[in-house]
Structures are given as structure tokens and as C-alpha cells.
Amino acid sequence: MDTARTAHVNRQTKETQIEVELNLDGDGSYTVNTGIPFFNHLLEIFSKHGRFDLKIHAEGDIEVDFHHIVEDTGITLGDAFQKSLGLKGGIKRFSWAYITMDDALVRVCIDISGRPYLLYNVELIDPVIVHFNANLVKEFLRAFVHSAEITLHVDLIRGENAHHIVEAIYKALAVVLFDASELIYPEDEIPSTKGIL
Fold this sequence. Notes:
Elements: E1 6-12, E2 16-23, E3 30-33, H1 37-50, E4 53-60, H2 67-85, E5 94-101, E6 104-111, E7 117-121, E8 128-129, E9 132-133, H3 136-148, E10 151-158, H4 162-180
Parallel strand pairs: 3-4, 7-10
Antiparallel strand pairs: 1-2, 2-4, 5-6, 6-10, 8-9
């Protein structure tokens, strides 16, 4: 039986072309090119702290807006995460993390539930980081959650610096996804009374 938890997903639209390769059981190796330097940085953080091997190549109409690339990358990465989990047998399913970066403290909680839901309780005083509007983080997470079919709650406990806040969010997301996708039960045991996730 092939137990590799990997996925390779392509998404092509008139606005973007996204390719994602994901290995849940990697060592945090990454190659990321979205054409948006700060977004690359966030995805590299995600790979490193989740110990996911990740390759992302994204092209699109960034001269119009970064929104399309960010959202479609979220869709494609979420799809890859969902596919790499297979039937979700044996996974821990739930996790939460408090992650700090200097002034910022965030809490991220997850349920790999099969039910997409995002609660995003983050208000940024000044969301612009160089040319990147950090409010796009919510759009990325919304897209990721719906494709990955997970429940995700993100709360800003404290913090003012947008850079620190969004880095802490991506680190926390990586940590909880790593933890919740850990195989701790027999492979044929689905962690739900429904028998399916």
C-alpha cells in the first residue's frame, strides 16, 4: 500500500496559473515563486515550520492586483493538503497553537473536519507591508480552508506590527497543520463517530 502523503495540483484560469507540490512528511524544504516577495516569505515560513516539503510556482496578473495570485494559491495549496491526507485515517485531527513574534501574539485552532469554516479575528492598524496588503492573508486563508475542508479559527491576542502579526499567523498555521495531521492512530481508524471526515 502506498502510504506517501503527497499531492501535485495544477490550477489554470484566465488570471493565474498555479502549480503546487506538497509532501506532508517532509523536512521543510521549499521552492516558492509567486512573483510577490513577501508572499513567498510567508509560504516559506509555512513550509519550514510545518516541516512540509513544498514547491509552488505561480504566475498571474500581479500588475492588476495581488489578490488573484494570493487567493488562487490558497485554493491550490488547500486542494493539495486535502488530497495528501487521503481518507484521513489515523490522524490526530485537532490542534491549537499560540505563537508570538515580538509584539504579536496569535492563537490558531484547527479541526481537520471535512467542514470548511474560517473565523478570522484580526484587525491590522496599518496593513501595508512594502507593496503587500496584509488584509490579503484573510483571503488566502478563506481559500485554503474551503479547498482543504478544515475548520480554522485565527485570533489576534495582541500586537500592532502587521509584519509580525502575519508571520506569527503563518507559523501558527504550519504548527497546527503539522500537529493535527500527525498519524497517531491505526491507519484504518477515522477520528470521527461518523466514520468519515
